Amino acid sequence: MVDLGAQYDLIKNEIDEAVHSVVRSTAYINGPEVKSFQSEIESYLDVKHAIPCANGTDALQIAMMGLGLKPGDEVITATFTYVATAEVIALLGYTPVLVDVNEDTFQIDPEAIRAAITPKTKAIVPVHLFGQSAPMEDIMKIAEEHDLFVVEDNAQAIGADYTFSDGTVKKTGTIGHVSGTSFFPSKNLGCYGDGGCIFTNDDDLAHNLRQIANHGQSVRYYHDQVGVNSRLDSIQAAILRIKLRHLDRYNTSRREAGDYYDAAFADMPQLKTPSRAPQSSHVFHQYTLQLLEGNRNELVEKIMAHDVPAMIYYPVPLHMQKAYKDDRYSEGAFPKTEKLCAGVFSLPMHSELTREQQDLIINTVKISLK
Ligand SMILES: *Cc1c(COP(=O)(O)O)cnc(C)c1O
Predict the structure, then answer these.
(1) 94: cis peptide before it, omega within 30°?
(2) Residue 266: which domain range?
């Protein structure tokens, strides 16, 4: 699905030098590379505070810990997402309230959010799924009306732009009160291990988040609150500094590959190519098609039998997962998500995909459909 080797080959000299330099420096934890990466990603996203941490799940957890919610408070998120989004809500003792998505864009549906709000609702967690922004203007409006926090899950859309109706353009992950992203190797900005980062424009919240990520420590060995230990290590920061300089190019390559797939599948009535979400650019974390007629699992098996990778993101919605089953939701509760989970499949998508590789993938899909 990705070709991390080909990507490394193109920046090998820079990366090798940076890694060796951290190893020689022995500043493996909280070294100068972490500080530099922090300020560079703050300027890239145009956000006041970046707080690097150990992975994207931690980023979301720490972001939510920083808001001071109480057990039993309700947090609204989409049922069509990766499990981490709801996991941290449940882990902290808050109640995940799941809602349906828009079946064209795969993004959380603002009307469904409105319908799910109760007096206990304290936050909304929009997920910028597959590389596009959730409808943030509507979401921020709802949040303002009901005095709710907005925590963006930006693990899949770093670098995407969202344009408000007054023309203001902001990067995803800088619009809500706080956001989290992941630097898992296959993400659009991936390191060579685990990594993550929290972002906010709020000075007090940033101070609190830094403390939480560092054992709740205010001064060394003085702990003001129960925190966690979550750090981005210096080698990963050094790698990310280099890859951040290439991020726009990586995202442009993905977008071009997405457009190329779109054109190739435009005349296939059985397939629905991914719609573009209004007001958002698309950084194609995933290229996700919907099979409109026929058996999706069989199709994916046929494609893979030709040695072409294909994946299903995601086969089971959160409300039908064993761990998140709840009396509030039965099968059929979220028809759009359930339809998507039965019909979606994703094709290889990365920044080094060649047109020859795409032609092979496209032909394999077409043959497999027959
Ligand atoms: C990858 C991902 C995460 C978690 O990131 P990790 O670094 O793997 O912990 C969270 N949410 C979404 C939507 C993701 O895709």
Answers:
(1) no
(2) 247-369
